[in-house]
Write a structure and sequence with these properties.
metal ion binding
Length: about 170
């Protein structure tokens, strides 16, 4: 409720916004998901294969080693997160992020990964509208170029390891 009030009071464009609904039920970390064009698996977190449509690099969330996650990438844990992971198999003109994008096991529930999914999805949606193309048909190379050059998202392991991490 505080966030909704803050947005209404201080963020331009939210003056007339209001909180419509708050789910009354607590949810487990898993839940209903959309089957996507590509489904990340445990094997994807282990193999070092590069995905042509990578939109960010992820790492395996390790609760016992928070400091490592907070301050940098460990080369052995990095894996590519493909754009296809955001595209539903049987639904056109839709991009899914967060828990709704099925991943086995559910490794992408940490906030920074969800933020990066949202960033990639937002840029892809803008490209889709600008070019009058379905999200499945946008120029992924252009999406990657924007992520890399405008938003400084490392898309390969070497760049990720060279990128200074903020504290």
């Amino acid at each position: 409720f505080d966030t909704a009030q803050f947005l209404t009071d201080y963020v331009p464009g939210f003056e007339d916004s209001y909180l419509h609904f708050v789910d009354p039920y607590f949810h487990a970390r898993g839940g209903p998901s959309v089957l996507t064009e590509y489904v990340l698996t445990e094997q994807d977190t282990k193999d070092k294969s590069q995905k042509e449509d990578v939109v960010f690099l992820a790492d395996v969330h390790n609760v016992s080693d928070i400091a490592e996650e907070a301050f940098g990438y460990e080369p052995d844990r990095i894996f590519d997160f493909p754009y296809r992971q955001l595209l539903p198999r049987e639904i056109d003109n839709l991009i899914v992020t967060g828990r709704s994008a099925i991943v086995q096991p559910p490794i992408t529930r940490v906030r920074w990964m969800v933020f990066l999914m949202g960033q990639a999805a937002g840029i892809a949606a803008a490209q889709s509208i600008e070019n009058n193309k379905e999200p499945k048909k946008i120029n992924v190379k252009k999406l990657q170029k924007l992520l890399r050059e405008k938003y400084n998202v490392p898309l390969d392991r070497q760049t990720a390891l060279e990128t200074p991490q903020s504290n």
